[in-house]
Design goal:
CATH architecture of chain B: Roll
CATH class of the largest domain in chain A: Alpha Beta
CATH architecture of the largest domain in chain A: 3-Layer(bba) Sandwich
Helix content of chain B: under 10%
Oligomer: heterodimer
Structural class of chain B: mainly beta
Number of domains of chain B: 1
Helix content of chain A: 25-40%
CATH topology of the largest domain in chain A: FAD/NAD(P)-binding domain
């Protein structure tokens, strides 16, 4: 039995693991990637002989990763998927968690006294005609190929979106020798310039801004066209290339009708990020709708304990706010978990954690407000009958609209899922939930929030039947 | 078809596996997704209606990169390290 099981070895998971392990408790961490660091620090493989990747501009990353990897009290399972958590409420006043894990060598059950969900986020799905075509990828996909595998997704690249990651990524792609055909931003201004202007208001984040400035300078030097108030409206496959149609939009990202087409090998989508909350849903945590934080987020107290007893949460699932914020939240969650296990937390440590949280909150708040997605306008891009909404089950918009017309009592995304299978494929609705909810909201003239979210059950990700057998148990 | 290309860097030792019976060369430490993308594979899987799919998220979330490895289905290529001699097949009708 471990004192704490953590899902996710990103900044939040690592920081929490260290805080708890340093208080003398045993910690086990499970992560789907090959090494610690999370999506933000995707490092080259161990087999390539280098311990570290490039962590710029996060100056604290190297130290955090080293301390995490070197701590004898932290056990890790990489390339492993937590597919569900069972709780036994009877054994003591506190919960005992049975964490179901699918590892490369089979199923494994981990038992723990506390659970921390530091599950991160994934690229915000935006459905439009052609988004299932080969060559269409998320910003995270293209960046992780570059960072951890030293692979360029294609030669001619077009980036679309509204998140500053697109500018940083453009700089990295140019460095790697890519030709960037165009960067189409939905916003009025390339947000980083505005942010740089507000720099004095945001102490402690100078390195992140200089990273942005560096990227902007590189983009200018390569004379990459940047379109403003422009969104992607269609991708068509032609002669092994993608014809990417870009449309002008107004301030609310509603199409104004002027289009142009660019040709590329790869279309990169970067409209923001969505918290990974499926495990939190499965374990029974309350969620809160927080549009600027990425959508559905996990409700928690000041010690990052969720509404489910002994289940803690840190990082992007509390609202997407970047690596620095995740690190701060993980640290605080770790101290709270250690305290709940009986440790005495020195006031100095607590004060430091609070300071870090306050510092990161200011920055995260500015970022979130500045890059809030216009959800209704993005959902509008999937309006045509033939547009695929659910990638796994190839459920098209026409079917979803017909389902809503034929079933006047359907008021929720979950009910649509039950009626027409959207969200029932291997990805378990991660890439269609937001669009389905937006469609329900639109047709029923309600808010996206009121459309709710898909319920999550064990397994939250499909795993081989053999893994269940391995876990066995009484 | 994927137009992904490897950048110059120190990689692991060379190894070989098969995709749909064809030999693919890769390097230790690469993911299966990387190796197949760099090999110019046109489809990791085909939908029920025959449309090709390539990796979309490269982080284990979307399952568009799922392939059949040594008879085991729904294996995410982006989370699987290449191994010498592994037999990989396209997943069809997913």
């Amino acid at each position: 039995m471990h004192d704490l099981a953590i899902v996710g070895a990103g900044p939040a998971g690592m920081a929490a693991a260290l805080a708890v392990a340093e208080a003398g408790f045993s910690v086990v961490v499970v992560d789907e990637q090959a090494r610690a660091g999370g999506q933000i620090f995707r490092r080259p493989p161990e087999a390539w002989g280098e311990r570290h990747g490039t962590y710029r501009p996060y100056t604290w990353a190297r130290d955090l990763i080293e301390r995490f990897e070197d701590h004898p009290g932290i056990k890790t399972h990489f390339r492993s998927t937590v597919f569900g958590v069972l709780r036994d409420r009877d054994r003591s006043e506190h919960a005992v968690f049975d964490v179901a894990v699918s590892t490369p060598v089979g199923g494994q059950r981990i038992t723990s006294r506390r659970l921390l969900l530091a599950t991160g986020a994934y690229d915000m799905p935006v459905a439009f005609p052609g988004w299932t075509l080969p060559g269409v990828m998320t910003a995270g996909a293209v960046q992780s190929l570059l960072k951890s595998q030293k692979v360029l997704a294609g030669k001619r690249i077009v980036l679309v979106g509204s998140h500053p990651i697109q500018l940083i990524l453009a700089g990295q792609l140019l460095d790697a020798g890519a030709e960037i055909v165009e960067i189409a931003l939905a916003r009025d201004m390339p947000g980083l310039v505005e942010m740089v202007r507000s720099l004095p208001a945001i102490p402690g984040h100078v390195s992140i801004f200089s990273e942005g400035l560096r990227a902007l300078a590189k983009i200018a030097r390569h004379r990459v066209p940047i379109s403003r108030r422009t969104v992607v409206s269609e991708a068509v496959s032609k002669d092994n290339m993608l014809d990417v149609r870009l449309s002008q939009v107004d301030r609310d990202w509603k199409k104004t009708g002027i289009n142009h087409t660019v040709e590329a090998d790869v279309l990169v989508l970067g409209y923001g990020f969505t918290p990974s909350t499926e495990l939190a849903r499965q374990v029974g945590c309350d969620l809160i709708w927080n549009s600027v934080g990425g959508g559905w987020t996990v409700s928690h107290d000041t010690g990052f304990q969720s509404s489910a007893p002994d289940v803690f949460v840190a990082g992007e699932p509390t609202g997407v706010a970047g690596a620095e914020r995740a690190w701060a939240e993980g640290h605080m969650a770790g101290l709270a978990i250690a305290a709940s296990l009986g440790a005495t937390i020195p006031p100095v440590a607590l004060a430091q954690a609070r300071r870090r949280l306050t510092g990161s909150a200011r920055f995260a708040g500015v970022m979130q407000a500045m890059f809030a997605p216009r959800r209704a306008a993005l959902a509008e891009l999937s309006r045509q009958e033939e547009t695929v909404i659910c990638r796994c089950e190839t459920i098209r918009n026409g079917k979803i609209e017909k389902t809503l017309q034929n079933n006047p009592f359907i008021q929720s995304a979950s009910a649509v899922k039950l009626e027409c299978r959207s969200g029932m494929g291997p990805c378990q609705g991660r890439y269609c939930e937001a669009t389905v909810a937006a469609r329900v909201a639109e047709v029923r003239k309600a808010s996206i929030e009121a459309s709710g979210y898909f319920n999550a059950h064990l397994p939250v990700k499909p795993v081989p039947l053999q893994d269940y057998r391995d876990i066995g148990g009484e | 078809m994927s137009k992904a290309q490897r950048l110059e860097t120190k990689r692991g030792r060379e190894l070989k596996f098969t995709f749909e019976g064809e030999t693919v060369t890769a390097f230790e430490g690469e993911t299966l997704a990387t190796a197949l993308l760099a090999a110019g594979v046109a489809a990791f899987s085909l939908t029920r209606t025959g449309e090709p799919r390539l990796p979309f998220c490269n982080m284990g979330t979307c399952f568009d990169c799922a392939v059949c490895v040594d008879g085991r289905f729904l294996v995410r290529a982006c989370l699987t390290d290449v191994r010498e001699g592994m037999q990989v097949n396209r997943q069809e009708g997913k």
